[in-house]
Amino acid sequence: MKAAFRLLLLLILVLIAEVNGQRRKPGRKPARPTSERKPARPTPEWKPARLTPEPVEPTELPPPLPPGPPSVFPDCPRECFCPPDFPSALYCDSRNLRKVPLIPPRIHYLYLQNNFIDSLPEESFKNATELRWVNLDNNRIKKLDRRVMEQLDSLVFLYLEKNQLKEVPSFLPANLEQLRLSRNQISKIPSGVFNKLEHLVLLDLHHNKLSDGVFNKNTFRGLKNLMQLNLAHNILRKLPPGLPSAVHQLFLDRNNIEDIPDDYFKEFPNLAFLRLNYNQISDKGLPKNSFNLTNLLVLQLAHNKLTTMPFINPKLEHLYLNDNSIEKINGTQICPTSLVTFQDFSSDLENSPRLRYLRLDGNQLKPPIPLDLMMCFRLLQSVVF
What we know:
Layout: H1 2-23, E1 89-91, E2 109-111, E3 133-135, H2 146-150, E4 157-159, E5 178-180, E6 202-204, E7 228-230, E8 249-251, E9 273-275, E10 298-300, E11 318-320, H3 331-334, E12 357-359, H4 371-376, E13 382-384
Parallel strand pairs: 1-2, 2-3, 3-4, 4-5, 5-6, 6-7, 7-8, 8-9, 9-10, 10-11, 11-12, 12-13
Protein backbone atom coordinates (compact mmCIF):
# COMPACT_ATOMS: atom_id res chain seq x y z
CA MET A 1 0.00 0.00 0.00
CA LYS A 2 2.76 2.38 0.86
CA ALA A 3 4.59 1.50 -2.34
CA ALA A 4 1.52 2.38 -4.42
CA PHE A 5 1.23 5.79 -2.64
CA ARG A 6 4.88 6.65 -3.32
CA LEU A 7 4.47 5.75 -7.00
CA LEU A 8 1.42 8.02 -7.30
CA LEU A 9 3.26 10.95 -5.63
CA LEU A 10 6.23 10.56 -8.00
CA LEU A 11 3.90 10.62 -11.01
CA ILE A 12 2.24 13.86 -9.82
CA LEU A 13 5.65 15.59 -9.43
CA VAL A 14 6.67 14.60 -12.97
CA LEU A 15 3.44 16.06 -14.40
CA ILE A 16 3.96 19.36 -12.53
CA ALA A 17 7.54 19.68 -13.87
CA GLU A 18 6.32 19.10 -17.42
CA VAL A 19 3.67 21.83 -17.16
CA ASN A 20 6.21 24.34 -15.80
CA GLY A 21 8.61 23.55 -18.63
CA GLN A 22 5.94 24.45 -21.22
CA ARG A 23 5.20 27.87 -19.55
CA ARG A 24 8.90 28.92 -19.41
CA LYS A 25 9.73 32.03 -21.57
CA PRO A 26 12.00 31.60 -24.57
CA GLY A 27 15.63 32.32 -23.79
CA ARG A 28 17.59 35.42 -24.94
CA LYS A 29 19.38 35.49 -28.26
CA PRO A 30 23.00 34.59 -28.05
CA ALA A 31 25.28 37.61 -27.57
CA ARG A 32 27.17 38.92 -30.54
CA PRO A 33 30.89 38.55 -30.66
CA THR A 34 32.79 41.47 -29.22
CA SER A 35 34.10 42.49 -32.67
CA GLU A 36 30.53 42.92 -33.99
CA ARG A 37 29.18 45.02 -31.13
CA LYS A 38 28.37 48.75 -31.71
CA PRO A 39 30.45 51.14 -29.64
CA ALA A 40 28.61 52.53 -26.66
CA ARG A 41 27.68 56.22 -26.72
CA PRO A 42 29.85 58.25 -24.33
CA THR A 43 28.01 59.89 -21.47
CA PRO A 44 28.21 63.68 -21.96
CA GLU A 45 30.20 65.52 -19.31
CA TRP A 46 28.09 68.08 -17.36
CA LYS A 47 29.29 71.66 -17.54
CA PRO A 48 27.70 74.77 -15.99
CA ALA A 49 26.04 77.11 -18.52
CA ARG A 50 27.99 80.29 -19.35
CA LEU A 51 26.23 83.60 -18.73
CA THR A 52 26.90 86.16 -21.45
CA PRO A 53 27.48 89.59 -19.82
CA GLU A 54 25.13 92.37 -20.81
CA PRO A 55 26.78 94.93 -23.16
CA VAL A 56 27.44 98.34 -21.65
CA GLU A 57 26.07 100.02 -24.78
CA PRO A 58 23.84 98.67 -27.53
CA THR A 59 25.91 96.57 -29.92
CA GLU A 60 23.93 97.81 -32.90
CA LEU A 61 22.70 101.29 -33.67
CA PRO A 62 19.16 101.74 -34.96
CA PRO A 63 19.00 101.72 -38.75
CA PRO A 64 18.86 105.04 -40.62
CA LEU A 65 15.42 106.14 -41.62
CA PRO A 66 14.38 105.26 -45.19
CA PRO A 67 14.87 107.96 -47.84
CA GLY A 68 12.07 110.43 -48.20
CA PRO A 69 10.23 111.35 -51.39
CA PRO A 70 12.12 113.19 -54.12
CA SER A 71 12.63 116.88 -53.40
CA VAL A 72 11.92 119.84 -55.64
CA PHE A 73 15.65 120.54 -55.29
CA PRO A 74 17.77 118.08 -57.30
CA ASP A 75 20.76 118.53 -54.96
CA CYS A 76 18.81 117.69 -51.79
CA PRO A 77 20.23 114.57 -50.06
CA ARG A 78 17.60 111.81 -50.01
CA GLU A 79 18.19 111.16 -46.30
CA CYS A 80 17.28 114.79 -45.45
CA PHE A 81 14.40 117.21 -46.00
CA CYS A 82 14.59 120.41 -48.05
CA PRO A 83 11.50 122.56 -47.41
CA PRO A 84 10.30 124.15 -50.64
CA ASP A 85 9.48 127.43 -48.89
CA PHE A 86 12.86 127.59 -47.11
CA PRO A 87 15.44 126.80 -49.80
CA SER A 88 18.45 127.80 -47.69
CA ALA A 89 17.69 125.21 -44.96
CA LEU A 90 18.55 121.51 -44.79
CA TYR A 91 16.92 119.29 -42.14
CA CYS A 92 18.86 116.07 -41.44
CA ASP A 93 18.02 115.86 -37.73
CA SER A 94 16.80 112.76 -35.83
CA ARG A 95 17.40 110.34 -38.72
CA ASN A 96 19.94 107.93 -37.14
CA LEU A 97 22.65 109.15 -39.51
CA ARG A 98 26.24 107.93 -39.13
CA LYS A 99 27.75 110.33 -41.65
CA VAL A 100 27.15 113.88 -42.81
CA PRO A 101 25.67 113.90 -46.32
CA LEU A 102 27.00 116.15 -49.07
CA ILE A 103 25.80 119.67 -48.24
CA PRO A 104 24.56 121.70 -51.23
CA PRO A 105 26.15 125.15 -51.75
CA ARG A 106 22.80 126.96 -51.36
CA ILE A 107 22.44 125.89 -47.70
CA HIS A 108 22.80 128.50 -44.92
CA TYR A 109 21.04 126.63 -42.09
CA LEU A 110 22.03 123.03 -41.39
CA TYR A 111 20.28 120.83 -38.81
CA LEU A 112 22.10 117.60 -37.92
CA GLN A 113 21.17 117.17 -34.25
CA ASN A 114 20.10 113.86 -32.66
CA ASN A 115 22.09 111.48 -34.85
CA PHE A 116 25.13 109.19 -34.44
CA ILE A 117 27.67 111.32 -36.30
CA ASP A 118 31.24 111.03 -34.98
CA SER A 119 33.18 113.22 -37.43
CA LEU A 120 32.80 116.04 -39.95
CA PRO A 121 34.43 114.94 -43.23
CA GLU A 122 35.90 117.61 -45.47
CA GLU A 123 34.16 116.04 -48.47
CA SER A 124 30.71 116.68 -46.99
CA PHE A 125 31.38 120.40 -46.54
CA LYS A 126 33.44 121.12 -49.66
CA ASN A 127 30.59 123.12 -51.27
CA ALA A 128 29.00 124.47 -48.09
CA THR A 129 30.99 127.67 -47.81
CA GLU A 130 27.93 129.86 -47.11
CA LEU A 131 26.78 128.09 -43.94
CA ARG A 132 25.68 130.46 -41.18
CA TRP A 133 23.95 128.11 -38.71
CA VAL A 134 25.03 124.53 -37.89
CA ASN A 135 23.33 122.43 -35.22
CA LEU A 136 25.22 119.25 -34.27
CA ASP A 137 23.76 118.73 -30.78
CA ASN A 138 23.47 115.20 -29.40
CA ASN A 139 25.91 113.33 -31.62
CA ARG A 140 29.22 111.51 -30.97
CA ILE A 141 31.73 114.07 -32.21
CA LYS A 142 35.14 113.98 -30.49
CA LYS A 143 36.96 116.65 -32.51
CA LEU A 144 36.52 119.01 -35.45
CA ASP A 145 38.51 118.90 -38.67
CA ARG A 146 40.64 122.01 -39.07
CA ARG A 147 40.15 122.02 -42.85
CA VAL A 148 36.38 122.05 -42.43
CA MET A 149 36.37 124.89 -39.90
CA GLU A 150 38.73 127.10 -41.87
CA GLN A 151 36.47 127.11 -44.93
CA LEU A 152 33.30 128.10 -43.03
CA ASP A 153 34.03 131.83 -43.00
CA SER A 154 30.34 132.78 -42.85
CA LEU A 155 29.47 130.59 -39.86
CA VAL A 156 27.79 132.59 -37.08
CA PHE A 157 26.07 129.97 -34.87
CA LEU A 158 27.68 126.64 -33.93
CA TYR A 159 25.84 124.18 -31.65
CA LEU A 160 27.84 121.21 -30.34
CA GLU A 161 26.05 120.41 -27.08
CA LYS A 162 25.96 116.84 -25.79
CA ASN A 163 28.85 115.37 -27.78
CA GLN A 164 32.17 113.80 -26.72
CA LEU A 165 34.54 116.76 -26.98
CA LYS A 166 37.42 116.79 -24.49
CA GLU A 167 38.69 120.29 -25.29
CA VAL A 168 37.43 123.50 -26.85
CA PRO A 169 37.85 123.14 -30.64
CA SER A 170 40.60 125.19 -32.29
CA PHE A 171 40.56 127.04 -35.62
CA LEU A 172 36.99 128.24 -35.15
CA PRO A 173 35.60 130.68 -37.76
CA ALA A 174 36.39 134.30 -36.93
CA ASN A 175 32.81 135.53 -37.52
CA LEU A 176 31.31 133.19 -34.94
CA GLU A 177 28.80 134.88 -32.61
CA GLN A 178 27.42 131.95 -30.61
CA LEU A 179 29.36 128.86 -29.50
CA ARG A 180 27.47 126.27 -27.45
CA LEU A 181 29.62 123.46 -26.00
CA SER A 182 27.65 122.37 -22.94
CA ARG A 183 27.31 118.74 -21.79
CA ASN A 184 30.58 117.49 -23.25
CA GLN A 185 33.69 116.18 -21.46
CA ILE A 186 35.77 119.34 -21.87
CA SER A 187 38.64 119.62 -19.40
CA LYS A 188 41.03 121.71 -21.49
CA ILE A 189 40.97 125.11 -23.21
CA PRO A 190 43.92 125.38 -25.64
CA SER A 191 46.02 128.53 -25.42
CA GLY A 192 44.88 131.25 -27.83
CA VAL A 193 41.75 129.39 -28.93
CA PHE A 194 39.61 132.56 -28.57
CA ASN A 195 42.15 135.08 -29.88
CA LYS A 196 40.35 135.73 -33.18
CA LEU A 197 36.76 135.46 -31.94
CA GLU A 198 36.13 139.12 -31.30
CA HIS A 199 32.55 138.83 -32.62
CA LEU A 200 31.57 136.10 -30.16
CA VAL A 201 28.73 137.26 -27.88
CA LEU A 202 27.72 133.93 -26.26
CA LEU A 203 29.96 131.16 -24.93
CA ASP A 204 28.28 128.22 -23.21
CA LEU A 205 30.57 125.75 -21.40
CA HIS A 206 28.25 124.55 -18.67
CA HIS A 207 28.16 120.92 -17.51
CA ASN A 208 31.76 120.01 -18.42
CA LYS A 209 34.90 119.11 -16.43
CA LEU A 210 36.61 122.48 -16.16
CA SER A 211 38.79 122.96 -13.06
CA ASP A 212 40.72 125.92 -11.62
CA GLY A 213 43.96 124.94 -13.36
CA VAL A 214 42.41 125.37 -16.81
CA PHE A 215 42.11 129.14 -16.50
CA ASN A 216 44.69 131.92 -16.51
CA LYS A 217 44.55 135.65 -17.23
CA ASN A 218 44.89 135.04 -20.99
CA THR A 219 42.37 132.22 -21.42
CA PHE A 220 39.60 134.47 -22.70
CA ARG A 221 41.80 136.96 -24.52
CA GLY A 222 40.20 138.09 -27.76
CA LEU A 223 36.58 137.96 -26.53
CA LYS A 224 36.08 141.71 -26.62
CA ASN A 225 32.32 141.62 -27.15
CA LEU A 226 31.28 138.59 -25.11
CA MET A 227 27.97 139.28 -23.36
CA GLN A 228 27.02 135.88 -21.91
CA LEU A 229 29.43 133.37 -20.32
CA ASN A 230 28.14 130.13 -18.82
CA LEU A 231 30.59 128.15 -16.64
CA ALA A 232 27.95 126.50 -14.48
CA HIS A 233 28.10 122.87 -13.37
CA ASN A 234 31.87 122.40 -13.57
CA ILE A 235 34.40 121.66 -10.79
CA LEU A 236 35.60 125.18 -9.97
CA ARG A 237 36.65 126.06 -6.42
CA LYS A 238 37.71 129.61 -7.26
CA LEU A 239 36.42 132.35 -9.50
CA PRO A 240 38.40 132.13 -12.76
CA PRO A 241 40.81 134.98 -13.59
CA GLY A 242 40.75 137.07 -16.74
CA LEU A 243 37.06 136.91 -17.55
CA PRO A 244 35.99 139.23 -20.41
CA SER A 245 35.25 142.68 -19.05
CA ALA A 246 32.31 143.23 -21.44
CA VAL A 247 30.24 140.36 -19.99
CA HIS A 248 26.60 141.15 -19.11
CA GLN A 249 25.44 137.72 -17.92
CA LEU A 250 27.67 135.40 -15.88
CA PHE A 251 26.58 131.93 -14.76
CA LEU A 252 28.75 130.18 -12.15
CA ASP A 253 26.20 128.07 -10.31
CA ARG A 254 26.70 124.43 -9.30
CA ASN A 255 30.45 124.62 -8.68
CA ASN A 256 32.38 124.47 -5.40
CA ILE A 257 33.27 128.17 -5.09
CA GLU A 258 34.00 129.11 -1.47
CA ASP A 259 34.96 132.78 -1.52
CA ILE A 260 35.01 135.90 -3.68
CA PRO A 261 38.19 138.02 -3.92
CA ASP A 262 37.99 141.71 -3.07
CA ASP A 263 36.64 143.83 -5.92
CA TYR A 264 36.46 140.80 -8.21
CA PHE A 265 33.27 141.93 -9.94
CA LYS A 266 34.41 145.55 -10.24
CA GLU A 267 36.17 144.44 -13.43
CA PHE A 268 32.78 143.97 -15.12
CA PRO A 269 31.07 147.37 -15.36
CA ASN A 270 28.25 145.98 -17.55
CA LEU A 271 27.41 142.96 -15.41
CA ALA A 272 23.61 142.82 -15.03
CA PHE A 273 22.85 139.16 -14.27
CA LEU A 274 24.94 137.05 -11.86
CA ARG A 275 24.13 133.49 -10.86
CA LEU A 276 26.07 131.78 -8.03
CA ASN A 277 23.51 129.25 -6.78
CA TYR A 278 24.66 125.89 -5.35
CA ASN A 279 28.17 126.81 -4.24
CA GLN A 280 29.94 126.93 -0.87
CA ILE A 281 30.00 130.70 -0.31
CA SER A 282 29.93 131.78 3.35
CA ASP A 283 30.01 135.15 5.13
CA LYS A 284 33.73 134.71 5.72
CA GLY A 285 34.42 134.42 2.02
CA LEU A 286 32.23 137.36 1.01
CA PRO A 287 33.63 140.92 1.23
CA LYS A 288 31.03 143.52 2.16
CA ASN A 289 30.83 145.34 -1.18
CA SER A 290 31.18 142.31 -3.44
CA PHE A 291 27.80 142.92 -5.07
CA ASN A 292 27.65 146.71 -4.84
CA LEU A 293 27.69 146.94 -8.63
CA THR A 294 26.13 149.83 -10.50
CA ASN A 295 24.38 147.86 -13.25
CA LEU A 296 23.59 144.60 -11.47
CA LEU A 297 19.86 143.82 -11.74
CA VAL A 298 19.59 140.12 -10.82
CA LEU A 299 21.66 138.33 -8.15
CA GLN A 300 21.17 134.64 -7.34
CA LEU A 301 22.89 133.25 -4.23
CA ALA A 302 20.53 130.38 -3.34
CA HIS A 303 21.83 127.15 -1.76
CA ASN A 304 25.03 128.53 -0.21
CA LYS A 305 26.21 128.91 3.40
CA LEU A 306 25.33 132.53 4.14
CA THR A 307 24.10 133.47 7.62
CA THR A 308 23.47 137.17 6.90
CA MET A 309 21.98 139.11 4.02
CA PRO A 310 24.73 140.68 1.86
CA PHE A 311 24.96 144.38 1.07
CA ILE A 312 23.50 145.24 -2.34
CA ASN A 313 23.36 148.14 -4.76
CA PRO A 314 20.22 150.35 -4.85
CA LYS A 315 19.55 149.37 -8.50
CA LEU A 316 19.27 145.62 -7.86
CA GLU A 317 15.76 144.37 -8.72
CA HIS A 318 15.80 140.59 -8.03
CA LEU A 319 17.59 138.90 -5.13
CA TYR A 320 17.57 135.14 -4.44
CA LEU A 321 18.84 134.11 -0.99
CA ASN A 322 16.72 131.02 -0.42
CA ASP A 323 18.13 127.86 1.18
CA ASN A 324 20.98 129.42 3.12
CA SER A 325 21.42 129.62 6.90
CA ILE A 326 20.20 133.17 7.52
CA GLU A 327 18.78 133.58 11.02
CA LYS A 328 17.89 137.27 11.14
CA ILE A 329 17.81 140.36 8.97
CA ASN A 330 18.69 143.89 10.05
CA GLY A 331 17.06 146.15 7.47
CA THR A 332 18.87 149.22 8.80
CA GLN A 333 22.32 147.69 8.23
CA ILE A 334 21.73 146.27 4.77
CA CYS A 335 19.71 149.16 3.36
CA PRO A 336 21.70 150.79 0.52
CA THR A 337 20.07 154.16 1.29
CA SER A 338 19.04 155.86 4.51
CA LEU A 339 15.78 154.64 6.01
CA VAL A 340 12.75 156.90 5.77
CA THR A 341 10.29 157.55 8.56
CA PHE A 342 6.84 156.05 8.46
CA GLN A 343 5.36 159.46 7.58
CA ASP A 344 7.58 159.70 4.49
CA PHE A 345 6.98 156.10 3.43
CA SER A 346 5.20 156.94 0.14
CA SER A 347 7.30 159.94 -0.81
CA ASP A 348 10.40 160.12 -2.99
CA LEU A 349 9.99 156.62 -4.47
CA GLU A 350 12.29 157.45 -7.34
CA ASN A 351 15.31 157.49 -5.05
CA SER A 352 14.38 154.41 -3.04
CA PRO A 353 16.10 151.02 -3.67
CA ARG A 354 14.74 149.28 -6.77
CA LEU A 355 14.44 145.78 -5.26
CA ARG A 356 11.12 144.25 -6.38
CA TYR A 357 11.53 140.52 -5.76
CA LEU A 358 13.16 138.96 -2.68
CA ARG A 359 13.31 135.26 -1.91
CA LEU A 360 14.25 134.19 1.63
CA ASP A 361 12.54 130.79 2.05
CA GLY A 362 14.56 127.81 3.20
CA ASN A 363 16.46 129.79 5.85
CA GLN A 364 16.08 129.92 9.64
CA LEU A 365 13.96 133.06 9.66
CA LYS A 366 10.69 133.33 11.54
CA PRO A 367 7.76 135.58 10.63
CA PRO A 368 6.84 138.37 10.59
CA ILE A 369 8.92 140.14 7.94
CA PRO A 370 11.03 142.80 9.68
CA LEU A 371 9.46 146.26 9.42
CA ASP A 372 12.77 148.01 8.71
CA LEU A 373 13.25 145.69 5.71
CA MET A 374 9.96 146.86 4.24
CA MET A 375 10.73 150.47 5.10
CA CYS A 376 13.98 150.24 3.16
CA PHE A 377 12.78 148.35 0.08
CA ARG A 378 9.53 150.18 -0.53
CA LEU A 379 9.12 148.92 -4.12
CA LEU A 380 9.02 145.26 -3.12
CA GLN A 381 6.21 143.48 -4.95
CA SER A 382 6.92 139.93 -3.80
CA VAL A 383 8.70 138.48 -0.77
CA VAL A 384 8.98 134.69 -0.40
CA PHE A 385 9.66 134.30 3.33
